[in-house]
Design brief:
It is built from twelve helices and 26 strands. With 496 residues, the protein is of the alpha/beta class. It has two domains: 112 residues, Immunoglobulin-like (Sandwich); 350 residues, Glycosidases (TIM Barrel), CATH 3.20.20.80. The strands form six sheets. Strands 24-23-26-21-20-19-3-22-25 form a nine-stranded mixed β-sheet, with helices on one face. An eight-stranded parallel β-sheet has the order 12-11-8-5-4-15-14-13. A three-stranded mixed β-sheet has the order 16-17-18. Strand 6 and strand 7 form a beta hairpin.
């Protein structure tokens, strides 16, 4: 009797396993296996990635950038380790403000004489910074001024503010901005990119007040004309130009801009806590696609082309997961969620044809938010306490060392929405970027090529507070296990 029950139980167990296997196949679930030192371990679901290097779907135009804000420009000058990290990461554009009240201050105009429209200048800090930026193979983007209600704090000391507009007088600000161009021209330095006032929507409104917008455009036009009179090769814009109402007005009344420009953050302090899934969805859509407040990249480019006959380059000139700082920054910024978000933004930027994506910002202190509610570590990708990277830096490092302008993007088909992929050819190496968007294991099965693969990846198996890149070698016929949130770069040298 005992043997009979054992047989029934075993038979029943086998039938349950068989039924589950049939049901899994019916619903599209797939299992896969990997070999470990202890034997065969099963992982599922499986994600199939198929690459066809014969089908070119685009050409990369994106280069990487970052912001040096507050006193981080001083650390960039003083610490060779930070400059080396920036160079090693392949960064090409570094954005800097002229108006932060740091000590020493970067603002080169120590006093502005409003009656003569001339200033007293000390360019030493600016020139040193520009030299260090050029030394690592990058170039600067200078953002001059900040259009805010208390604008007196963001313009040169002594410069008057028009009481009717609450902005500087156009001819005065134009003379100030032109001095920047004149200075670098005299030094024969290729300083090309400028923004005329940071986030002017804080002045004219996110749903723009037309009167205030007209005041701002008047100042912008005056500055642009004065700057271009000295060097017609400067590249000028402002970072709210793609907002609805602003772009339409600009097309009608503004002078030419040289690039479309926007800022991208995907979780604001005014919102209740936004879950990972929502943040990652926004990474691929917000401000890339047309929404309620801003024109998407393709629509904005088409509108400008239809009106002015020119396809403009596009720069995301300030970007991070969350800009909130008053009660501490978002702790996910430096964690794997922040790394996945960063990679999705860069991937979308590549597919949208962006020229630059500027990460806000390069470095911050691990003690930044220790006494705040959230305990975040600032906005940096590098810990300024010890000059060691956090996970978002490694995202930039992997992409910055494997992707260049002009690289061919090839067709990649992925069987699951849980993993985003992008493939390109760089120096005869096939690069496959795989981004696991879910915090659960997934197994990659690769198709379309064969040979030995070099894998670089970051994930939660190593502490985010002291992260590193994991490297391994495997054959293309093997499966690659992603342990939850993961950014992996898979490389295969092609036969020439």
């Amino acid at each position: 009797m005992l043997h009979y029950h054992k047989k029934v139980v075993w038979t029943t167990f086998l039938l349950i396993i068989l039924a589950f296997s049939v049901a899994s196949a019916s619903f599209g679930f797939q299992s896969s296996s990997a070999i470990s030192s202890s034997g065969t371990i099963s992982y599922w679901p499986r994600v199939d990635i198929t690459v066809d290097i014969s089908k070119v779907i685009g050409v990369n135009n994106l280069s990487l950038g970052f912001q040096l804000d507050h006193s981080s420009w001083i650390g960039f000058i003083n610490y060779p380790q930070r400059r080396q990290l920036a160079q090693d990461g392949g960064f090409k554009l570094i954005r800097v403000f002229d108006f932060r009240p740091t000590n020493p201050r970067l603002m080169p105009c120590t006093y502005w004489n409003e009656s003569t429209k001339t200033g007293t200048w000390d360019w030493a800090n600016v020139d040193t910074l520009v030299q260090k930026i050029f030394e690592i193979g990058a170039e600067p983007l200078f953002c001059l001024g900040y259009a805010r209600p208390n604008i007196q704090n963001y313009i040169p000391p002594g410069m008057a503010v028009n009481p009717n507009t609450q902005l500087p007088y156009p001819d005065s600000y134009a003379a100030y901005a032109a001095e920047w161009v004149k200075h670098f021209k005299e030094l024969d330095l290729h300083v090309c990119y400028y923004q005329i006032m940071n986030e002017p929507a804080t002045y004219f409104g996110w749903a723009p007040n037309q009167t205030k917008l007209s005041y701002y455009v008047e100042v912008w036009n005056a500055a642009a004309r004065a700057m271009r009179a000295i060097n017609p090769n400067v590249r000028l814009s402002q970072d709210c130009v793609t907002r609805k109402g602003v772009l339409e007005y600009w097309i009608q009344y503004g002078d030419d801009i040289d690039f479309l420009d926007f800022h991208k953050y995907d979780h604001y302090g005014s919102e209740t806590w936004v879950d990972d899934v929502v943040v990652l969805a926004r990474a691929e859509t917000r401000y890339f696609e047309t929404g309620s407040t801003a024109w998407g990249v393709e629509d904005a480019r088409r509108m400008w082309y239809n009106a002015r006959g020119k396809w403009l380059p596009v720069i995301n000139s300030e970007s991070n997961l969350n800009p909130t700082w008053e009660k501490g920054t978002d702790p996910r910024i430096q964690q794997m969620l922040g790394a996945v978000w960063t990679t999705l933004v860069l991937r979308t930027g590549i597919l949208k044809g962006l020229s630059y994506n500027v990460y806000f910002e390069f470095s911050s202190s691990a003690s930044y938010g220790k006494t705040t509610e959230t305990g975040g570590y600032g906005f940096g990708m590098v810990n300024s306490d010890n000059n060691k990277p956090w996970y978002p830096y490694y995202v930039h490092y992997m992409i910055g060392n494997s992707l260049s302008v002009g690289d061919l993007i090839v067709e990649t088909i992925c069987s699951s929405d849980d993993v985003r992929t992008l493939s390109w050819i760089h120096n005869q190496i096939l690069n496959i970027l795989a981004i696991c968007k879910v915090d659960e294991p997934r197994t990659l099965s690769l198709h379309g090529f064969e040979g030995q693969l070099n894998i670089s990846k970051i994930d939660n198996t190593i502490s985010w507070e002291n992260p590193s890149v994991q490297n391994q070698i495997m054959n293309a016929s093997e499966s690659l296990v992603l342990n939850g949130y993961t950014v992996a770069l898979i490389q295969l040298r092609l036969n020439v």
